[in-house]
């Protein structure tokens, strides 16, 4: 077969599939909707997760160490520690939190404002919040011991509960999204599989007659592959639109929630690369479903 | 080399029915053969073994020197592309137009669109259906559908034409036209094998006669 | 038609549908999987939400008022207030939080433990946590004013941030679950619609011949309705199993997360009534899809 | 009251083809009529108007006193249940057994299972297919399928039997058997109307002849 011939055969198969799809607009729309919804859910979940990870990274990607000075520490003592931290190779960043700031920060904690106000004097010491360079547990433990030996240091604290919580939340989210993706991936392949199966059944006569007239397996299968892939394509586009719509719909409540936790956070929709991947993936799944279905069902149709 | 050779062929269907038993005969290139016999004699079964729709349970069917029973999937497809077959139940596609039905064998063979369209129209013209090319088969009468099936079988200019009761549903006048048409294909070198209950129809064209009775070959002679 | 006859016709239609379903086990399984997944997601979401609501109700269904005494209040002052609260008609419940408890509770707050330890003396006053009877904002505001006038009361605080946060979270959850339910309900009806459409197409000859032999519309439709409903039934059962499985899979991470927030919380699976509702709903959706599809597609098949 | 009356009936198909024009005739209760004419003359079209598969574009078709053109959906269903029709393309169901194919009209009419099974077997016996009751139609030869279609048409004991080329694909011996069968139905009072290219087949039974030519009625007489 010449290349022109080959191209013509593929063009014809694709055209036939496209005509079949265009010939039944309502049903095509419904199928695309099903595929789209099935894809939109894990994609949307992934979008939320990615946003959440971004937030998490901003907030506390690396754990922090808090150095609390004794209550009787004076300005000079603070400057001494400031100087040591500045020189320390394992300190990426640090911040001085004077006792007045600590007091006003705690006041923001729910239910404590008035308690704090009612205190006869500021009970807080000066403090430093340190972002270390390493992240391994031993490194952090060593730093903690080292800082604790600085003069006028009452106590050093490793910030880890927040990290643990976030980790647990993220793990739950990841688990949900993965479960969703697997379930819906299966559903998607099943839907395409079934659609193609029934498509094959309705085209049974055509397949049979083509076989009788000497059509090769490739010739017979081709339109079904294109059909599956085109259906996937439409579904992918629907999924993309749905995710976009969800991003818009969720933007408000999410940022309200974030603001209640005092974060400044706006939901970002799927970036271009991932949108393209989503659609390509949809096409692939459609093709896969068609392939599975064709492999299983087409051989059954033998001319008689 | 003969166009077609049956060699002690038997066909037993899964149900246990032996539709064809120990049949041997040969059809030379360019010959015209009429196959007759009572209903259920095994005519269709015999014809269906030529394009490997059924495989013989015993013996060999040899088409153009190839043992059909030994062909692989792809070999069968190629074999079929080079045959013209008119099936007893016609096997038309009711969701394609008359034109597209006749186009199908050419599309499968990979003809260029223009040449294919020309051939389709020529074949439709030959059976008198050119005016109906845009109709769907459901809009054709029984006899018109029969002629459509004939057009599809010959559009590919096969060297071997197999026809299973091609004149059913046709009134005598049309039946004679069809017989005449087969005769003219035969005249340009096409080997023709026709199953028909009405062997007299082909008598004027000097076809050889083969008669089946309960799956066995009982007569093999030139039409008187 | 006699009643026996009527029953026989329905029995036959149901039997025919069941046979058709049983005759294609792989495809039936796939369809049931698709329907099941589509139903399991909102059902699972609803389960999570219900659990969360239960948790929320335990934690802070009604807002609470905290009464902080002055630092110089003594045992007698506390007893006086305890007595007043006991008599108060608008107080459903209250709890005395001695200053020692307040201190140790605050120590559990992240990053504060060592600060608190480092304080020279307990800065907290004694307090009462009051659960009022009413919930309307004015009632609460009035109570707050009343308590503030009790002797030795430094300050009264209305606990509301937590409630707001919870509310925002719940609203987000509800929004997600509702969106999911609508999307997947649509997907489900679309899947059944399409399955039945193709089923009709593959049974086109049967429909046509039945019409030719004088079958009534009801006779022709009936098996399709049963088919849709049975498919829904299978899907509902799959959904139920999936939700159950999800409840098991999530039990661990959820209770770990909860424990990080110091809650004692175990995920409860769907109760019986709701399980039954889920399955009934699946049957209904299957039937609905069949009905829509049959209405749309069956008329097209006219004998010719 | 006649069993069947055509009253200035014309049928123009959407494509513009006028398949039947100004046809009037009457068939009395218990009569046997043979309809013939060339391929495409309009025989099938004419027969298809009796069970309202096609509606006349002009004139009236009256079956047992009812104007078929005025029937509602449910009326059409009831009418069809009381006719026996053998279609030119047979319309068998290939995913049901021979037995179930013949059972279908009885299931639709709501017969009790036992009585229905008895009738199905009786009908299959009459056409010589009783042994094949468990087979699928695909395993039948062309002629056997034709006989199956006949069994399905008569199982309901219709008072009016319509047959469109019932002897196509049948060898002369079987064709005579079928004609004889129709004759015996007719003998017990069934009105029979048969379209066939082979009117001579029914000549011995004294059937009335109706001949169509390009949609017009050209002859209406007793077979000589
Ligand atoms: N697929 C099949 N399975 C089982 N039996 C079959 C099958 N096809 C045909 N038969 C049986 O084999 C015998 C021969 O059938 P065949 O179709 O070859 O007859 P035929 O000569 O073409 O008859 P007709 O003139 O009626 O078409 C018949 O008894 C038929 O029932
Ligand atoms: N559904 C249809 N739409 C358009 N034209 C049709 C339709 N059905 C039949 N015709 C045309 O009407 C004419 C009469 O057809 P009909 O089937 O009645 O002929 P017939 O006498 O039965 O012929 P045959 O013996 O070949 O079966 C034919 O020219 C046919 O092409
Ligand atoms: Mg045959
Ligand atoms: Mg006809």
Q: How would you portray this structure in words?
A:
The complex is a heterotetramer, with two copies of chain A (304 residues) and two copies of chain B (224 residues). Chain A has a four-stranded antiparallel beta sheet with strand order 2-3-1-4. Chain A is an alpha+beta fold and 304 residues long. Chain A is built from ten helices and four strands, in the order ααβαβααβαβαααα. Chain A has two domains: 3-59 and 164-300, no CATH class; 64-159, 2-Layer Sandwich (Alpha-Beta Plaits). Chain A starts with a helix and ends in a 7-residue tail after the last helix. The longest helix of chain B has 16 residues, at 172-187. Chain B has 224 residues and is of the alpha/beta class. Chain B has helices at residues 43-48, 73-81, 98-109, 113-126, 142-154, 172-187, and strands at residues 4-12, 18-27, 32-37, 58-63, 66-67, 83-86, 160-164, 191-195, 208-213, 216-222. In chain B, strand 7 (160-164), helix 6 and strand 8 form a beta-alpha-beta unit. In chain B, 31% of the residues lie in helices and 27% in strands. The structure holds adenosine-5'-triphosphate (ATP) (2 copies) and magnesium ion (MG) (2 copies). One adenosine-5'-triphosphate sits between chains D (13, 15, 17, 19, 37, 39-45, 88) and B (138-144, 169).
Rounded mean pLDDT of chain B is 90
CATH domain class name of the largest domain in chain B = Alpha Beta
Mean pLDDT metric of chain A: 78
Helix content of chain A: over 70%
How is the largest sheet of chain B built, in terms of strand order?
6-7-8-3-9-10
Distance between the first and last residues' Cα of chain A: 29 Å
Low-confidence stretches of chain A: none
Q: How many helical stretches of chain B?
A: 6
Bound molecules: adenosine-5'-triphosphate, magnesium ion
Structural class of chain B: alpha/beta
């Amino acid at each position: 077969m010449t290349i022109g011939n080959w191209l013509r055969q593929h063009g014809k198969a694709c055209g036939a599939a496209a005509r079949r799809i265009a010939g039944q607009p309502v049903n095509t729309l419904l199928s695309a909707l099903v595929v789209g919804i099935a894809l939109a859910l894990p994609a949307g979940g992934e979008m939320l997760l990615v946003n959440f990870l971004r937030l998490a990274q901003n907030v506390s990607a690396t754990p922090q160490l808090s150095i609390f000075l004794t209550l009787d520490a004076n300005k000079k003592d603070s400057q001494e520690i400031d100087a040591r931290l500045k020189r320390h190779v394992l300190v990426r960043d640090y911040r001085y939190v004077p006792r007045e700031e600590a007091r006003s920060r705690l006041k923001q904690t729910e239910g404590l404002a008035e308690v704090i106000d009612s205190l006869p004097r500021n009970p807080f010491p000066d403090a430093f919040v340190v972002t270390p360079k390493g992240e391994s547990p031993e490194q952090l433990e060593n730093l903690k011991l080292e800082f604790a030996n600085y003069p006028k240091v009452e106590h050093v604290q490793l910030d880890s509960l927040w990290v643990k919580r976030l980790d647990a939340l993220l793990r739950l989210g990841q688990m949900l999204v993965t479960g969703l993706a697997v379930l819906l991936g299966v559903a998607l392949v099943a839907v395409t599989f079934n659609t193609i199966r029934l498509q094959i059944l309705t085209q049974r006569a055509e397949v049979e007659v083509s076989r009788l007239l000497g059509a090769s397996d490739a010739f017979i299968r081709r339109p079904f592959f294109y059909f599956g892939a085109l259906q996937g394509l439409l579904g992918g586009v629907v999924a993309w639109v749905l995710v976009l719509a969800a991003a818009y719909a969720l933007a408000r409540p999410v940022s309200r929630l974030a603001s209640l936790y005092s974060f400044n956070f706006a939901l970002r929709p799927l970036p271009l690369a991932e949108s393209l991947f989503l659609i390509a993936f949809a096409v692939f799944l459609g093709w896969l479903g068609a392939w599975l279905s064709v492999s299983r069902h087409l051989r059954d149709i033998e001319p008689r | 080399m003969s166009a077609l050779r049956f060699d002690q062929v038997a066909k037993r269907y899964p149900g246990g029915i032996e539709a064809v038993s120990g049949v041997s005969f040969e059809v030379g290139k360019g010959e015209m053969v009429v196959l007759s016999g009572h209903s259920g004699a095994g005519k269709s079964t015999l014809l269906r073994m030529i394009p490997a729709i059924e495989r013989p349970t015993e013996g060999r069917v040899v088409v153009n020197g190839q043992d059909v029973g030994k062909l692989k999937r792809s070999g069968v497809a190629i074999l079929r592309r080079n045959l013209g077959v008119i099936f007893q139940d016609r096997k038309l596609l009711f969701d394609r137009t008359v034109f597209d039905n006749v186009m199908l064998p050419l599309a499968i063979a990979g003809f260029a669109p223009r040449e294919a369209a020309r051939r389709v129209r020529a074949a439709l013209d030959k059976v008198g259906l050119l005016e109906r090319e845009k109709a769907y088969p459901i809009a054709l009468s029984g006899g018109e559908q029969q002629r459509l099936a004939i057009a599809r079988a010959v559009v590919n200019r096969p060297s071997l034409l197999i026809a299973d009761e091609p004149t059913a549903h046709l009134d005598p006048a049309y039946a004679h036209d069809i017989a005449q048409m087969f005769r003219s294909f035969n005249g340009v070198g096409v080997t023709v094998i026709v199953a028909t209950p009405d062997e007299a129809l082909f008598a004027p064209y000097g076809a050889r006669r083969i008669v089946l009775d309960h799956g066995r070959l009982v007569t093999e002679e030139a039409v008187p």
